[in-house]
Amino acid sequence: MELDPALLARAQFGANITFHILFPTITIALAWMLLFFKLRFNSTGQAHWMEAYQFWVKVFALTFALGVVSGVTMSFQFGTNWPGFMETVGNVAGPLLAYEVLTAFFLEATFLAVMLFGMNRVSPRMHTLATFLVAAGTTASAFWILALNSWMQTPAGFEMIDGKAVVTSWFEVIFNPSFPYRLTHMLLACGLTGAFLMAGLSAWQWHKGIRTPAVKAALRTGATVAALVIPIQIFVGDLHGLNTLQHQPQKVAAMEGVWETEKGAPLLLFAIPDNEARTNHFEIGIPNLASLILTHKADGEIKGLNEFKGAHPPVFQVFWAFRVMVGVGVLMLLVSWYAVWRMARNKNAEKALNKPVLFSLIAMTFSGWVATVAGWYVTEIGRQPFLVQGILRTEDAISAVPPNMILSTFIGYLVLYVVLLVAYVSTLFYLAKKAGSKPAPIQTVNPVGGQYVHA
Questions:
Q1: Are the C-beta atoms of residues 252 and 245 closer than 8 Å to each other?
Q2: C-alpha–C-alpha distance, residues 54 and 323, integer Å
Q3: Strand pairing partners for 113?
Q4: In sequence order, what are the residues at sequence separation of 6 or more whose Cβ sits closer than 8 angstroms to the Cβ of residue 427?
């Protein structure tokens, strides 16, 4: 069997970025939640807020470490598997990646040490500032990475000279047409991922009998953040969809499974797209609803895939990844609102957190990962066959590395990622269980010296 180097290189990079993206989505949200815990402790003096901080900062540190390690491998692949990418658009991608390291990664990595080891070495105010700077650094990192990714989707602010992209306006490069929507959508996705992880892991602790005020506070915080963020995410997702329809109509056509341009296109709840026959099998849809959602008109026109022959993504993958993302989003809405409603209705946590609430939150612990990865697949596979929309085709950027070598490293990556992922999840539950068996010393504020002391 002849191996396709382009397909293998895409699969390898897809595996790397799938594994990597799991961890920044948690650290971005968790950093701001840690800041919230810290501020609540500073303002109230209640020890359970610091107890929650001390537990979740361990989760943050573990997650941050895996995010850094998994991110390093992707940068090497630009040179090994995709030299045509940097050769063609390196004038854009290189500086943006450098800005991310210089302005974001150094900031969060430096002050993370203060967060973890400076509790009794710096003043409470300085420790709170360090927590804020780590949160700001994680968000700034997302800013630069999403600026580059958005530019690859909707390139602007450049001109092609001798086959290379040359920047004419950095403002237009960074704030390209899809960037505001993509950045907001991704940050909200991070918020949901972190919120459900916190709510789910805390619900597991509560179910196992670890019913401390700190666990209750973390559970309530996670569920409340999720309940507040998910309707905003739905609204922003609609705006993002409209922007995509304007700039990448072929991606939207693949998301909706529309082959022929039509007015009043139905919203397909189920279908099996057939790329070869260029049609759908076993369609179940709601008439006119796709046009209504995308164009805000019941008879709005949606361009079909047949208008983009040779320049549209594989339909089956994009179609179903989009439905997984939306389906998980609906579950997030229902579960978070149900949990918050129960807690608002019953001030007694023992009554509010019944088995349906706990089990639903536990089941949704890693739902943010599922929705984020599915959405990322829609974004990245939906850009095919281009690496940079309209400028660089994927097939033109591949290296001459022998396919058997790509396959061997691909298998190696997969094995390593499975082991690391199992170890990570196992460690999370180990830490959660250990927190109940032997509570960590709580740091409180000495009202005289203003320093942290053991309670």
A1: yes
A2: 38
A3: none
A4: 62
In a domain, 349, yes or no: no
Residue 389 CB neighbours (<10 A): 20
Residues 188, 230: Cα–Cα separation, whole Å: 8
- Report how far residue 93's alpha carbon sits from residue 84's, in angstroms, rounded to the nearest whole number: 12
Hey, what are 282's tokens?
A: 């076993």
Residue 332 lies in a domain: no
In the chain, the number of structural domains is 1
SS3 of residue 455 by DSSP: coil
Residue 1, classified by CB atoms within 10 Å of its CB into exposed (0-12), middle (13-18) or buried (19+), is exposed
pTM (2 decimals)?
0.91
Tokens representing 436 are 């109940």
The reply to whether 446 falls in a domain is: yes
Rg (CA), the chain: 24
Please give the Cα distance from 278 to 258 (Å, whole number).
10
Tens digit of pLDDT per residue, the chain (455 long)?
577 888 888 888 889 999 999 999 999 999 999 999 999 999 998 999 999 999 999 999 999 999 888 888 877 777 788 888 889 998 999 999 898 888 888 888 889 889 888 888 888 899 999 999 999 999 999 999 999 999 999 999 999 999 999 999 999 999 999 999 999 999 999 999 999 999 999 999 999 989 999 999 999 999 999 999 999 999 999 999 999 999 999 999 999 999 999 888 999 999 999 888 889 999 899 999 999 988 888 888 899 999 998 889 999 999 999 999 999 999 999 999 999 999 888 877 777 788 899 999 999 999 999 999 999 999 999 999 999 998 999 988 888 888 888 888 889 989 999 999 999 999 999 999 988 665 544 444 443 344 444 33
Tokens 């892991």 found at: 201
Which residues share a beta bridge with 161?
A: 164
432 is a domain residue: yes
Task: Quickly list DSSP for 179-211.
Answer: HHHHHHHHHHHHHHHHHHHHHHHHHHHHHTT--
* 295 HSE (CA, 13 A, CB side): 19
CA terminus-to-terminus distance, the chain: 67
Backbone angles phi, psi at 286, to 5 degrees: -110, 120
Q: CA 130, CA 116: separation in Å to the nearest integer?
A: 10
With residue 452 as reference, give the H or E element that holds it. strand 452-454
As beta bridge partners, residue 392 has 388
Which residue range(s) make up the domain with 182?
A: 5-229+391-454
Q: Name residue 452's beta-bridge partners.
A: 445
Angle at 62 between CA 57 and CA 64, to 5 degrees: 90
CA 15/CA 406 separation, integer angstroms? 13
